[in-house]
Amino acid sequence: MFTFFLIPALLYMFLIFFFLAGILRLKRVHDPRIKKLSIIVAARNEEKYLPELLDRLLNQNYPEDAYEMIIIDDRSTDETAGIIRKYQQRTSQIRFISIEDYDPVLSGKKKALAVGIDYASNEILVFTDADCLPGRNWLQEINRHFSDQIDFLAGYSPLQIKNGLLSVLKNLERVSLFAVTAGSFGWKWGITCTARNMAYRKSIFNKINGFEGIGQIPSGDDDLLLQKMAGFLRKLTFMFTTTSFVPARDRTEWKIQINQESRRASKWRYYPLPVKAMTLFIFSYYLSIFLAVTLTFFSLLSWQEVITLIILKTVPEFLLLACFLIKVKKCKLLWGFLIAEVIYIPYFIFFAVKGTWGRYSWKD
Fold first, then answer.
1. What does the H/E/C string look like for the chain?
2. 20-47: pLDDT as tens digits
3. Domains plus CATH for the chain?
4. pTM here?
């Protein structure tokens, strides 16, 4: 019976080392030539956070004539539109667009982004969210990493949380996703990314007809779009430099947290077959770990065998996260690794089930 559990454990270990090797395969990119950039931000009811974002974007360590900002008010009911107009009066860099009606073909944020992309006058499109905090050298880092061969770029976006343990655990969970992003990029395989810190070419977006085919899905303006672009991308890369980070404010309300995680998991059904098969395997493997622990209480597996299975899971995961955290200089997060290991399997299974078959509410 032990062999039944050992085979998927070895396959999972291989998968984790595959991503680890992908991170190591990424080559450092340095192209200092100044390129024209278009920053696109869709904001809906973000009056609380938008001013700080706009201040940061206007104070980038980058030539003013080399970037524009396209800020879209996506059907806000607060003062978001008024805030954008006030900033627009201060500078010609800001282009303001207002979305007033819901579009069932292009759901929510995708409609706003599609209109913004259409307005963009530059080839390189840069994205972040209205509640994010890009540093002063963010555009400089994007410019440096975006060589002539690069078509898609992503970067690290840590969560800003005041609670010590909670901050470590939630950021470790995010780090695992960023490690997969970077690792898959090293193999020219776009699996996932986050719109908080990414850039791609407008010509690629137009070549795949934008969000066509995924426009009706409530989310996926980042990962589903990346997966759709996959066959058209020449090179992908990831920014590890600390000045490229885009911290994001964590939404502390539990209802928002649960809906956010459920929304993320709900996209599984729309993934391409290879990504869907991989995530289904991971889900099945995590269930097998639960089953193995349960069987020890019926003396059908020994504790030594279960410990072996846990080691085969834990050691590769630690090495993958450590590799990524060394590159982004955030190794202090590793102190919460063992706690995260205990929590993550039930966390993953719960939201995988809830996101696929349950209900959630989100901005439409």
1. CHHHHHHHHHHHHHHHHHHHHHHHHCCCCCCCCCCCEEEEEEECCCCCCHHHHHHHHHCCCCCHHHEEEEEEEECCCCCHHHHHHHHHHHCCCEEEEEECCCCCCCCCHHHHHHHHHHHCCCCEEEECCCCECCCCCHHHHHHHHCCCCEEEEEECCCEECCCHHHHHHHHHHHHHHHHHHHHHHHCCCCCCCCCCCEEEEHHHHHHCCCCCCCCCCCCCCCHHHHHHHHHHCCEEEEECCHHHCCCEECCCCHHHHHHHHHHHHHHHHHCCHHHHHHHHHHHHHHHHHHHHHHHHCCCCCCHHHHHHHHHHHHHHHHHHHHHHHHHCCCHHHHHHHHHHHHHHHHHHHHHHHHHHHCCCCCCC
2. 999 999 998 899 999 999 999 999 999 9
3. 2-21+272-357 (no CATH), 27-158+167-246 (3.90.550.10)
4. 0.92
